[in-house]
Design brief:
The chain has about 350 residues and is of the alpha+beta class. Among the domains are: about 90 residues, no CATH class; about 100 residues, no CATH class. Strands 1, 2, 3, 4, 5, 6, 7, 8, 9, 10 and 11 form an eleven-stranded mixed β-sheet that branches. α1 packs across α11, α3 packs across α11 and α4 runs parallel beside α11. It starts with 5 loop residues before the first helix and ends in a 9-residue tail after the last helix.
Length: about 350
């Protein structure tokens, strides 16, 4: 009997269309039992290291690259016994749900308009005591000093627009763009009182070129460039750069976008820079829909971690195939069904009888 490995489980996730459970895997395998698959997933430890090793071979690097940070929640709202599940805010559901928190890091090459997931962390403070900010900074250190990836700009959600993160980016000599929550306290002058960012007044020139502000609790004299970005309630599935004026920035996080690039003097350019952050949302959606990322029903936290690790590897493989075929990951999965349909029409397994 051949030794079962995580690649066999990845192969199952790669080809399955609607069901990603161990039971479904065993039911459709001639050699594997549910118990054997369960032992694989509970008895091994697959981590983000495998992802980094795999994706490093696929990355096309750029000195003008982007590093994106964000988090998502794997919906387990109907779960009662999965160990990693905790109640937490879901930006997608716009409410607190039961789920597994995932902090992710994506690399974008703007020269060829391609992106890759390069790292992730599972939010499990009850076991490791780490916050989402801790996970972000851990991935930041890894990308900067271990992987040593070339990049110029960091994009992140308002949740991560903290002094610790922003100062870390500045210390590394990189540029950041991040939205601010509408109640973030800022001041335009040391002589002025702090006020909410959404209470600032804007001249026509400032709306176009931005203004310098100081964020509350930041060191004295520290300034960032603040831009007011138009809020839109419309979100396209695949925004065109020409539509970046209103499609993305501000939907989740209010009106203000700050950058440490003091030379930036264009609100339109800031919109375009910030809108690249949509790529990480695209990754979250694709991974959930085509790899079964949030579909595992295993109770064991180790099995859940291993399922997530395998799903990440599967997305990398699908992304590679999609890039080679100049299509998207959805089409790659759909082609499996298309091949099945063609085969069935040529030689049906079930034949229709005449009336």
């Amino acid at each position: 009997m051949n030794k079962l490995s995580h690649l066999d489980y990845c192969q199952f996730l790669l080809v399955s269309q609607i069901n990603y459970t161990q039971t479904y895997f065993a039911d459709h395998s001639e050699q594997l039992s549910h118990d054997r698959i369960n032992r694989l997933m509970r008895g091994n430890k697959f981590t983000s290291r495998e992802l980094r090793q795999m994706v490093r071979k696929e990355l096309v690097l750029s000195e003008d690259g982007y590093i994106l940070f964000d988090d998502t929640v794997l919906d387990k709202n109907h779960s009662f016994a999965i160990e990693l599940v905790r109640r937490q805010w879901s930006g997608n559901a716009k409410k607190v749900i039961k789920g597994i928190g995932l902090v992710t890091c994506v690399y974008v090459n703007p020269d060829i308009d391609k992106f890759w997931i390069i790292d992730y962390r599972i939010f499990d403070p009850a076991r490791d005591g780490h916050s989402k900010l801790d996970h972000l900074l851990d991935m930041w250190q890894s990308n900067l000093y271990v992987e040593q990836l070339p990049f110029r700009t960091v994009l992140m959600d308002s949740w991560y627009a903290t002094m610790k993160v922003m100062k870390a980016v500045e210390k590394a000599g990189k540029i950041y763009y991040c939205p601010l929550k509408s109640n973030r306290q800022v001041t335009e002058s040391p002589a002025d009182d702090y006020c909410r960012v959404d209470a600032l007044s804007w001249s026509a020139a400032e709306l176009e070129a931005g203004k310098m502000v100081h964020l509350k609790k930041f060191p004295k004299g520290h300034q960032v460039k603040l831009f007011r970005i138009a809020v839109s309630t419309h979100r396209t599935e695949h925004p065109d750069p020409a539509q970046y004026r209103t499609n993305w920035v501000g939907i989740h996080s209010g009106l203000g976008v700050v950058t440490n690039d003091h030379s930036q003097d264009s609100s339109d350019a800031t919109r375009i820079e910030s809108a690249i952050r949509w790529k990480i949302e695209q990754f979250h959606r694709e991974a959930k829909q085509v790899t079964g990322l949030e579909a595992s029903q295993c109770r064991s936290q180790r099995a859940q971690r291993n399922h997530i690790a395998c799903a990440m590897l599967v997305w990398v493989r699908l992304n590679q195939l999609a890039q080679d075929a100049h299509t998207n990951v959805y089409q790659i999965k759909q082609d499996l069904l298309s091949n099945y349909m063609r085969a069935q029409l040529r030689q049906p397994s079930i034949s229709m009888l005449p009336a």
